[in-house]
Fold these 2 entries.
Entry 1:
Amino acid sequence: MSDLIWLSEAQMRRIEPYFPLSHGVPRVEDRRIISGTIFVIRKGLRWRDAPADYGLPRTIYNRFIRWSRLGVFNKIFSALSAQGGKPDRLMIDATHLKAHRTAASLLKKGPFPRRIGCTKACPERSRRGGLNSKLHAVCDGKGQPLVMLLSEGQMSDCKGAALMLDALPRAKALLGDRGYDADWFRNALAERNIAACIPSKRNRNAPIPHDAVLYRLRHKIMFGWLKDWRRIHTRYDRCAHTFMSAICIAATVIFWINQ
């Protein structure tokens, strides 16, 4: 196939330090397996449909599952995004990711949370209806993700922000939409010397002014790029940790692996 995806040697050198050590029998070439994993996630394929150029589909799938459980791909994303330098400003937002029937088929109680919820459709945003997950992200001024969180679809933006608060990098300002207009969040940002550029909710008695020119820069946030990857746009993974690993792989390849 002419459109196969292969990581370069320079790209592999950036991520290899975070790979687990091989024990016992030497494993299949890392570049081949990681490139095959990227291809499957990018194209939205079933694992069994991975091109033969990448080796046995079972080998690709098993490596992805095993390393997902070890948090390897999350560590790679966190390490490379931290090397991007101190951001001048931050942007926070969240987006819904529709759950395919294969992901929702095991929507029941168990030892591991699925991070799949049910949200009601509304006339203005009918896409939110049904089973879905929600990706919360804090990005730098260029729209590149720094901190990400996966939750059930019904979780509010403010609750997601609360869970990511301790991981916020230092910056001069944070841009967010009306969903983040809460006094406790503004106070938490002020304690960190971060100026809040957040429009006031319409029901706020005394609206708080914000920099409208600065606020327009929120269009740079990265969700559109991530959703070009078909296994991100639609969630096929049943387990939350495998889906989050796929998101981390996509974010690393799109934004950080070539830095």
Entry 2:
Amino acid sequence: MTTSTASGGTAEPTALTAPTASPGLASSRGRTPVPGFARPRWGRAGAIYDLVVTVGFATPFTAAALLDLTRWVHDAFDLPGAQLPELGATALMFTSMFGTAVTMWAIARILRPEPRFIAIDTGGRLLFSLWMTWALLNGQSATIVVFLIGEVVWLVLQLSGLMRLRRR
């Protein structure tokens, strides 16, 4: 999309043109937003979803409780695949590190839902989806499907939002 100028020529679109200064920094301090800088709502919504889903994995205590709940769901619904194993302290530490990292990343995207961060997150969703699919194909509990559906839905929503933003 190009726009006409007063001299009859055309000007380049500014929808995705990033200013040389840190975009969004001025707007985050209550000043006028930087021209051409978009803050897509769908990016913030995906981050809120991530926060809700992963905050429970951010401590070894809450992660253990959520994994116990997952084992209960697996048994209660007699789902296919291997039951999740009981995790020791080291495995719970790594699980909590993952939960903490994703929680912090979600908070960063809630505060700064910039297209570049959403694009990085969309790539991460693709990789998470691949690893979940790999686990399912290797006989792990079908409880993973709930998380896989969420990843794929937000992958598609964020990718389509980024594509629409790029076309502007």
